[in-house]
Amino acid sequence: MELLVASAIGVMTASGIYLILRLRAFPVILGLSMLTYAVNTFLFVTGRLVVNRPPILSPEAAGYTDPLPQALVLTAIVISFGMTAVTVMMALGAFLETGDDRIEMTGEDEGEDEGTAGDGARAPEDAR
Amino acid sequence: MLPALIAALPFLGALLPGLMIRAGRNACAIATGSVTALALLGLMLHAPAVIGGEVILARFEWLPALGLNAHFMLDGLGLLFAGLILGIGLLIIIYARFYLSAEDPMGQFYTYLMLFQGAMVGIVLSDNILLLLIFWELTSLSSFLLIGYWKHLPEGRQGARMALTVTGMGGLAMIAGMLILGNIAGSYDLSVILTKGEEIRASEWYLPALILILAGCFTKSAQFPFHFWLPHAMAAPTPVSAYLHSATMVKAGLFLMARMWPVLSGTPEWFYIVATTGAVTMLIGAKIALFKDDLKAVLAFSTVSHLGLVTMLLGLGTKAAAIVAVFHIINHASFKAALFMAAGIVDHEAHTRDIRRLGGLRRLMPVTFAITLIAALSMAGIPPLNGFLSKEMMLEEALHTPWAGMAWVFPLLVVSAALLSVASSLRLNVHVFMGPERTDYPHHPHDPGFGMWAAPAFLALLVVMIGLFPMTFAGDIVAATSRAVTGEAVEVKIYHWHGLTAALYASVAAVVGGALVLGLHGPLGRLWLALPRPEAKAIFDAVVGAAAGVARALSEGIHDGALSRYLAIFTVGVLGLGFWAFAGGVHLPGMRMPLEAGPVAWVGWALLATCSVLVAVLHRARIVALVLIGVVGLVVSLGFVYLSAPDLALTQLSVEVVTIILLLLALNFLPKRTPAESGGARRLRDALIALLAGLGTAALAFALMLRDFGLPTISDYHLANSKTGGGGTNVVNVILVDFRGYDTFGEIIVLGIAGLVIFALTEALFAGPAGRRLLGWRADAPKAGDRHPMMLVVAARVLLPISIMVGIYIFLRGHNEPGGGFIAGLVVAIALLMQYIASGSAWTEARQRIDYHAFIGVGVVIAGATGIGAWFATRPFLTSNFGYFRIPPFEKFELATAMAFDLGVFLTVIGAVMLTLASLTRIALRAGTTVNAAPMDADPSAAPASEARG
After folding, report:
1. Is A61 an interface residue toward B (CB < 8 Å)?
2. Which residues lie across from B58 on neighbouring strands?
3. What digits encode the pLDDT tens for the residues B668-726?
4. Domain A2-51+65-102 is in which class?
């Protein structure tokens, strides 16, 4: 079981890293989501793997798993939603502003700055 | 008055000028001056006791665990320096009132000055070296503001930057030195450190600590080779130069060397580093001073020279030399501050301070001439003025100290320095005031009003009085200070006539030689100009430029604007570090028994692994990728169920739903496909990095899971106290709302802020080109025919009360069973989202009474108020309480304050999630999505009527 969980974390990490190295906003967001899964799962398993012993106190329970990583991961999941939402919104905003969801800011960007300084707003290309 | 209050008063006083300047410049100066006067009065009240040998302490615990405490101490040394700082500070405040012109923002000036004053007083009264370091850095910062006070002058800004760089770097070195020192002594309290001199000098860390601390002292006190910043700092207004660069800040280094004298001095290292640096600085400063033509530059370099003199005396390490050092500090402060102020008057009146353009001012400015004459003669060491006394004593000490067995080194250095110093002191009188009156002054000069010359005149008077009656005016304070510096009672005897000693001959030689050198100033000056000499500013600029260039090259090489580039560098870097740590660490074998994996686990794993790989492979088809990532999320939540984490499973599941909806809505406007841009090599490289990262993480996770906890976890405490202390059986929920409630409080605030940020971003988008583009939006994909199918509308409406009830149920049981505010909030948010999807935003928002912003606000306020409620029971913030109640006919039930907190969480989560998705809805509306007037595409209520007609 440990091997399965560990390899699952590995696969999710690899997929996430590959995606965040792409050049467009959307795959990067997907990659961040994959990394979120991987990281949350990793944090969760720091409490070690335990089956059928949820941290709900009861007289019949034979024992409990470690509740602390669960509490930490629970808030992490919710916060990562908030962060994903902000990133999505920024990506969407950038796309709507520029008609492009490229995330690299090399070369052409500097030219754009000069253009802005020279003749005001850059003529927006049509998105379609 | 407590020493702590004396140090705090100037800081409090720094608030006044900004307010009082509205009442006029006089009111501002008077208010500022009264604060300083009050602090000086408080100090003077202690003077009799301190001179009598008492040490006054004031101690407040601040961070005792770090050894950082607000411990203040007032002894003789502190009294002398605090007296100089506050006394001369008062004179400077008066002088500056008349010096600054109407255009200069005087309130700002006094505020900076008071900040500086407080920091200086703090340094000299600290009994804790960490506290001292804080004040030390504050003087660097406030002097930066003062030097750069005339922001419009480039020299002022550059000088300020240079001073901050040099003294700031010295300060950094000193922090390290002080930490080492505190470590050796076992305490950061000076009063303890001062008793451990033997131990510290014997420590193997003595030399590093000494060098680092001296680096701080030498940079602050402008000792060679760090002397170059001081002349550039002269771009400051003259009151600043007079205050910081003659009387106080540059003496901070001397103060510290004197303070640490009992601990650090007395070793060959101390002697060779400190005395040599001092003597060399003394000579170099005196030499450069002679050839400068700017009045303030002359004074600046002569200050460097005199600071070197005091440093050398401290470096000699004998008690007698330390007494002379103390005495000379007093004398130098008096005559040099007077000279600075006089130079400021000349500059103010004649509109130039270039010696070549001056001369013959004797009759035009008699008062200024008198002040300069007295002060400069004292500096030259002419009897009976105070400068003569200390110079004579200094020569006496230096002439009898061999350097590395060579008796001639110190005599040569100090006598030539004294000679040059005499020449430049005399030059101030001869070349500025003597000679024929000129007609080409930039502005016809005359003596200023009383207010401006009062302060230097007072100092000149002091020069004469100390010179004539040294024991009356300075004997006690010198004795008290020397006792504090040397740590033992000393007998101070200052008198004019020592007999026909070597010092007297040296002194006469210096005066005669100085006069000769001044006579030859013209040819010597030409020789000086002809010889090559290093230009400190150019070297400094080159060094700073090179450092900045390297930093820029490095950061631009890594952060070149390509996100993928720095993420790749980051990933590889983390991998490398992880591998390095792993290879260098010690590992125990994994002893934990692995769990058996059943077929269900294998199926889940296969599904997850396949979908994860497919997401990466098929990511160009964005909708497909979204579906696949949804599957991954679902398997993760199933995994949580399997591995005893029901709360996590519920959270992950509901977050998954809202995330996917969010991404789908966003995808509505984004391109549906990612174009293929990176080539094969690039993809191979990325895949390799990803593979390595995945392998590393997997290996780490695997190794971790096979090992038991190294130490007992705090979870046992949580499990044991959840029911008895927190009143709930769901330990995860109790941790969230009780044990770690503060964290959760922070987290919901972050979540709320995220929601608001998204709302604000939308607003900003509408205002810019994006808004215009949205108005002309054409959808790139055909829409489905049914926008609001009747089945969906009806089902969603029927489900709404049920899902809200489920949400409330999950919320209520959360304290004892899986559930709670986070999950309930997400469930209710999904129920509301369903209405948006089924019936459209117009229909839904028409029925929505409360803003989502209000949900966030109310949620955070409720959670906060619950926490504050604990204060009324005199418990710390967020301490929870619970009790069991019975209201017939219901069964006994529990109420916990944590529940109210959880309600806050619940509301914030709803608000943040809904605000996010509603923002995307607003974008859709802006893009011209049709708004349905009727709740559904087909109106069921209209159907029978049409049938009846037909």
Report:
1. no
2. B72
3. 888 888 888 888 899 999 999 999 999 999 999 999 999 888 888 888 888 888 888 88
4. mainly alpha
